[in-house]
Specification:
177 residues, mainly beta, Neuraminidase, Laminin, 2 domains, four-stranded antiparallel β-sheet, 13 strands, elongated, LRP1B protein, Wnt-protein binding
Length: 177
């Protein structure tokens, strides 16, 4: 799944399949300017920062079990968001400090470091095994058997082939001409 925020005419948090199909709004009320988003892949939660409401909130992948992690002056001007173990990590764009927030109760907010021009944050953890998926490279070096672009579809076992600009997908659904 692909998760994203939008604060155009109607502010919302959305999800869709990686090929753009099955687009679904998961949050569309009591939300103003969702800017940063982070996923808990294990427990299937979506966290986001709303810079207008000065809040960090969470819902499950279906938009249920919504609650506010933290709200108020402590979380003003946040940009970027990452989740790792028991904490959320974010950047305060006013003073460029990296903040750590307990993601279960919003307490234990700590400034960890300060960086020049910090606007985004990512946490990386080495994984020993990655599940196979429909876009793995085939024996001919083509991802998912697609000549140009392979996008995961409704599950990790399904895929959609797409073509680069200027090409059209052939009748076989895999080659671009």
């Amino acid at each position: 799944k692909l998760f994203f925020t939008d604060y155009g005419n109607t502010a919302k948090v959305e999800r869709c399949d990686m090929d753009g199909m099955n687009r679904t709004w998961i949050v569309d009320s009591k939300i103003e300017q969702p800017t940063a988003l982070a996923l808990d892949l294990i427990n299937k939660y979506v966290y986001w920062v709303d810079i207008y409401l000065d809040s960090v909130e969470v819902v499950d992948y279906q938009g249920r079990r919504r609650h506010t992690i933290i709200k108020g002056r402590q979380v003003r001007h946040l940009c970027g968001l990452a989740v790792f173990e028991n904490y959320l990590y974010t950047v305060n764009s006013d003073n460029l400090s990296v903040l750590r927030i307990n993601r279960y109760n919003g307490t234990d907010v700590q400034a960890l470091a300060r960086f020049d021009n910090a606007k985004e944050i990512r946490v990386y953890q080495k994984r020993s095994a990655v599940r196979s998926h429909a876009c793995e490279v085939d024996p001919y070096g083509m991802p998912g058997g697609c000549s140009h672009i392979c996008l995961l579809s409704s599950s990790y076992k399904a895929r959609t082939c797409r073509c680069r600009t200027g090409f059209i997908l052939g009748s076989d659904g895999r080659s671009c001409k």
